Every structure is written in C-alpha cells, then in structure tokens.
Amino acid sequence: MTVLRAENLTKRYGRREALADCTLDVPAGRVVGLVGPNGAGKTTLLQLAVGMLTPTAGTITVLGGRPGAGPDQLAKVGFVAQDAATYANLTVADHLRFGARTNPRWDQAVAGERIAALGLDPRQKAGRLSGGQRAQLALTMAIAKRPELLVLDEPVASLDPIARREFLRALMAHTAEHRTSVILSSHLVSDLERVCDHLIVLTASRVRVAGDVDELMGTHYRLTGARRDAADLPAGAEVIEHSATGRQSTFVVRSVVPIDDPSLTVEQLTLEELVLAYLSRSVAAHRPELEAAR
Fold first, then answer.
1. How many CA atoms lie less than 13 Å away from 176 in the CB half-sphere?
2. Torsion, CA 193, CA 194, CA 200, CA 204, rounded to 10
C-alpha cells in the first residue's frame, strides 16, 4: 500500500517555485524522514499532503484519496505543525474536549493516558506550558485522532535536546504499538537517524533522493584514491559529490553493484554524510564556481 503518491507535483507562488516536479511513492508502515535546508520545500510538501494547500500542477494522493477531501479523509491524517499549534487560553482538558468533539475516531482513553504519563495538569492553560510540553500536547491531539498517517513538520526544531528526545521517544512508542505511518520533517539529521527507516532529501524545491534507509546506505560509498577523473571510476558509479587535493581524489557515489577496484579505498557512509553529499551537490549545481573549484 502507498501512503503518499505524488506525480510531477508543483506549487508556485507567482514566479517562485516552492516545489517543482515532485514525484514520490512512499510505502505505508514507514517512518519517513523528510530532510533539507530551510526553504527547500519541506513545509510546502507537507501542507499539500494534509490539504492546507492545493497544487499548481501535478497530482498528490494520500491514503488513496485527495488531501483534505471531506471529513473521512481528514480523519485519516494527524498533523503537528512546526509551532506545535495549541490554544494559549485553553486548558489541557479543554484541548482534549475539543479533540473529542471534532474527530470522529477520537480515543479519549489514549489521550488521557498520555496526559497523565506526561505529568501534565489538565487544568493548566497551554500558554503556560513549556515548549516541550506544548509539543507533547500537540502530539497527543494528533495521536488520539487514531490516524493512519501522522505528518509532523519540524515539531522538535525549537526544543532543547532533552525535550526532543522525549518527543521522539513518545512518537516511536506510538508507531511501534499502532503501526502508524509517519512523515517527519527535520533539518536535524541526527534525530532522523534514530527513528526513520525511509528517507527523502529535498533541496531547492526538488526531490534529490528517496528510498528506504537500508537500501540507500547499502548503495552509497566514499571512494578515495590517487587523483583521477570521474570518468575513470568503475562502471555504474553515479557521482554524487567529489573533491580533490594535489594527489588524491575523493568521491561519494551511488552504485547498485559493489565497487571492486583495488586502487580505491571504499567506505560506507553515515546517514548524515549521505544527506550532506546530496545537499552539497545541490549547492554546487546552483553555484557553478564551487564546482569548478573542486
């Protein structure tokens, strides 16, 4: 089953493209990390996925339906925005009552248990909660909808390391128990590395690479050896990033077959190194003088 499918998805604001020719096929049951620099198009993609925006061109379906197309579709998706939207003048209990009235699948038992486990006072107004507590309240509201898909737009970006860890721990506990699909946007690759099994790298409004983390990690390598041109690398090696000193060349490549060249040192990448290689490739493509200097 596909949780999200996009074909040539494009969103423009006047002449500016916030998202361009995005084609994706995200399988269900995954925790998807959506990573890229600020302004890459991550929030645009997620807002299209939950129906807050409509495409300029192309198509997007979520759980087999058009995003935001009626109550049934809305009930399938839980959304936590970057600012962990809560209502400052409402108490924690007010939030749960509001959730119960507006969500047909609402699970009051789950909501109450999470609030108790978090140590939140139901009488406390949201405006007096810490940033981490507000994020946890927003996650509780999304989880208690019993959604098939959770969409999280940089929900931990403003949190301190301990609050981030607790938020991600709660998220993973929920997904492990309920097998909920998750799309989690972040520019903190270290957080994604701990929780995600599918990766999408988005830069300059375009998808640069997407796939299961295990497959991506098993097909990307760092090659180091005597200085050479990219054309002299083993057949089938797609160069993602390269650099050179006077005598040595270093390449990050993608190859579906093992690299068998005794003149090269072959190393696996960390997920962060893989992401940074694609980000660097995008920067070089937009600034040719950087590529020429390599």
1. 8
2. -60
CATH 3.40.50.300 matches 2-214: yes
Name residue, tokens 């959506």: 34
Residue 91 CB partners (closer than 8 Å, separation 6+): 122, 123, 124, 125, 126
Confirm whether pTM is higher than 0.70: yes
Q: Give the CB-side neighbour count of residue 276, counting CA atoms within 13 A.
A: 11
* Residue 126 Cα distances to 20, 101, 121, 135, 189, angstroms: 37, 19, 10, 10, 29
Averaged pLDDT, groups of 10, the chain, 294 residues long: 94 94 94 92 95 96 94 92 84 96 93 93 95 90 94 85 86 88 89 90 93 96 95 93 94 94 94 92 55 46
Domain boundaries, the chain: 2-214, 219-293
Name the 3-class secondary structure at 216: helix
Strands 198-203 and 31-35: parallel
Structure tokens at 41: 């198009």
